[in-house]
What we know:
Number of strands: 18
CATH class of the largest domain: Alpha Beta
Order of helices and strands: EEHEEEEEEEEHEHEEHEHEEEHHE
Radius of gyration: 21 Å
Strand content: 25-35%
Distance between the termini: 24 Å
CATH topology of the largest domain: QueA-like
Shape: globular
Oligomer: single chain
Amino acid sequence: MKKSDFYFELPDELIAQTPIENREQSRLLHLSRQTGAITHYQFTDLPKLLNKGDCLVLNDSRVMPARLLGTTEKGSAAEVLLLSGRDDNTWECLVRPGRKIKTGVKLVFGAGELTAEVVDESDDGNRLIKFSFEGIFMEVLERLGKAPLPPYIHEELEDKERYQTVYSREVGSAAAPTAGLHFTHELLDKLKRQGIQILYLTLHVGLGTFRPVKTEDVKDHKMHEEKFIVSDETLQTIEKAKAAGNRVIAVGTTSCRVLESVYAEKDSQTSSSDTNEPETAANSNAESSQSPEAEYQSTDIFIYPGFEFKCIDGLITNFHLPESTLIMLVSAFSSRENILKAYEEAIREKYRFFSFGDAMLIV
């Protein structure tokens, strides 16, 4: 299977640069997973497309204001994007301009409220940067940092909360789980009253989400690794729903990847019960936990056509970039032909694409 199999032409004017005024007023394209039939709705119509007893699983990760604008100690402009935290206030970061920000360079942000030094460089060109500050780092970051908007968005965001879901809680993402941006508290309440079970998990989205597939053969692409956490209570509720014949609807590719990683691990453990450490898509990482029942794990699961889904029965998602791992995932869930046909229809109907764009429900 080739990367070019997932290419489509998208007019630039359909790339949404700003969010619409009311989150839930975005459009919703309903795609039948089996037949490829397409119907057009508004996102406010979602309750009538779900059934009592369905489980709606949302990612409650919150985007860090991970983009820092400052200067080197010599006064040159410097931009730092936080990727992942290490010990002792050290972070792996992207930097700009890379040719000037080398090991040993010192950086200043916010008139000296936050300072830093580049302590090392990784093989892929990222920098390890050690930060110095007074107080709590996340509070300093809230004051000085900006949301790291995707590279295809060229306009500044007036209200930074519009790049957060209304239910975001756990800070740690470098990008928003954008399928959830369409929900309001009022819509979630309406779904609950209808008997829809609203469940949460956390996957901290990395910037690898925007990393292009560079290999022509899809199977040769290496996915980025992301941390996630899902409680036993959530998994037990999902098991009961499936046993009762109800559907599990993942909100976003991030929730999908978590659930399919967990179920792949369960399958692997069942089939490899005679080994102590089965090879799985999700790997335990006991360095942090939110409760006795759950701890952070990591996944680099890559879902593309041919993948056997073991958990989800439906998916709410936005419209994705050509040749991206995200369009490969949705093509695996329905079919490449169905997805490309739906995208052609969305383009004809002038749907808004990507992070601030419209949504699709595949069931």
